[in-house]
Amino acid sequence: MRRIQQLSPRLANQIAAGEVVERPASVVKELLENSIDAGANRIDIEVENGGVRLIRIRDNGSGIPKDDLALALSRHATSKISALEDLEAVGSLGFRGEALASISSVSRLTLTANSEGQDTGWKVFAEGRDMETISSPAPHPIGTTVEMRDLFFNTPARRKFLRTEKTEFGHLEEVVKRLALSHYDVGFTLRHNQRTIHQLRPAKTRVEMERRIATLLSPQLMDNAVVIDMESPDLRLWGWVGLPTFSRAQADLQYFYVNGRAVKDRLIAHAIRQAYRDVLYGGRHPVFVLYLELDPAQVDVNVHPTKHEIRFRDGRSVHNFLFSTLNKALASVRPEDQLSPAT
Ligand code: ADP
Ligand code: MG
Fold first, then answer.
1. Whose CA is nearest to atom 23 of ligand 1?
2. Does the CB atom of residue 62 touch ligand 1 within 6 A?
3. What pLDDT score does 153 carry?
4. Which of 101, 159, 262, 332 has the fewest Cβ atoms nearer than 10 Å?
5. For ligand 1, what atom is nearest to the CA of residue 97?
6. ipTM exceeding 0.90, yes/no
7. Which residues surround ligand 2, an ion (CB under 5 A)?
8. What pLDDT was estimated at residue 252?
9. Which domains does the chain have, with CATH numbers?
């Protein structure tokens, strides 16, 4: 038997990284969420080799003051909550203070930022088993740039699970789409291996929002969708649902957000399936982009580190509201629209 010893900070972070950093796409998710939490309305994403070799995300958010830079890289350090009560109604996408520490333990990560009231930007990275931070002045406009290189270079077992460049980039692009469809006021650019893949201006009007959806999902969707906007005293559901005739062989165009956060939830999936049951052919999948809004105190997002799972206080009333709203919307569609399935 070996004696008990304390894990080094890097090793502890690498173990924690197992939960949130699965692949380049998970890094992009965490970094984009940080940019959005910082109030950025412009985010540029540059990726090489499916995100394995390089992910560089630059935002024009609030930035990070020089004295906080080292803390930003350390575990359990966050500016987003400070007490348990805050967790009861968390309004930010992040709150665990783990992402940057985790990512920088399994890659070469540098953080460069400038914030209001400083005359220059600063750059920081973590080194060695204790992840001591090293910082130096570096010019940067107000905002933050995170540069991650060589994901899993020091954790070969993890690297083995990475797939082809194409597959990894596909996952990464999906993460960008998912966030772009819930933050219309933010402009995004995505470049892969020096090629521009997406260039999305901030969308303010409904027409601009629909244009963004069409660009990202399908040019035909808006001609084949019903607009939803329904409010009860406690809940609001709005967005677009595809006509039954616009169904898909795969469940690949389904976006559901709860208070701006993309979620996967069995109760929600069930309510939607029920609503489409009588109008959809067996084995087909509906298309939807839907936003559910409710009092944040009514949802627990602290179920899993990736925060894709949630728990509703009153799941039954959420289910009923979803089902009845969608059911009514679909019933209002002319019956001749529902005769034959599309491709
Ligand atoms: P969390 O998002 O859960 O707080 P992170 O490890 O993702 O934890 O980030 C740690 C902290 O670093 C954040 O709380 C925030 O204060 C700061 N931070 C990270 N990214 C940015 C960014 N792009 N702009 C401004 N601040 C940031
Ligand atoms: Mg975060």
1. 35
2. yes
3. 97
4. 332
5. 8
6. yes
7. 34, 94, 99
8. 93
9. 9-200 (3.30.565.10), 218-338 (3.30.230.10)
Whether residue 59 has its Cβ less than 6 Å from ligand 1: yes
Query: Is the CB of residue 94 below 6 angstroms from any atom belonging to ligand 1?
Result: yes
Q: Is 243 in the pocket of ligand 1 (CB under 6 A)?
A: no
Separation of alpha carbons 178 and 188, rounded Å = 12
pTM for the complete prediction?
0.94
Taking the C-alpha atoms of residue 105 and residue 99, their distance in angstroms, rounded to an integer, is 10
Phi, psi (rounded to 5 degrees) for 178: -60, -40
Say what the pLDDT of residue 64 is. Answer: 97
Ligand 1, atom 10: closest residue by C-alpha: 72
Separation of alpha carbons 79 and 214, rounded Å: 36
Give the distance (Å) from ligand 1 centre to CA of residue 63: 9
Dihedral of the CA atoms 230, 236, 239, 241 (nearest 10)?
-60
The stretches in the chain having pLDDT less than 50 are: 338, 343
Q: pLDDT tens digits for 19-57?
A: 899 999 999 999 999 999 999 999 999 999 999 999 999
Q: How far is the CA of 13 from the centre of ligand 2 (A)?
A: 15
Q: Helix (H, G, I), strand (E, B), or coil: what is residue 234?
A: coil
Taking a C-beta distance cutoff of 8 angstroms, is the pair 331, 277 a contact?
no
Whether residue 191 contacts residue 209, with contact meaning beta carbons closer than 8 Å, is answered with no
Q: What is the chain's alpha carbon radius of gyration, rounded to the nearest angstrom? A: 22
Q: Which residue's CA is the closest to the ligand 1 atom numbered 14?
A: 78
Is 190 within 8 Å of 207 (Cβ atoms)? no
pLDDT (0 to 100) of residue 204: 95
Closest ligand (CA of 98): 1
Q: Are strands 54-59 and 195-200 parallel, antiparallel or unpaired?
A: unpaired
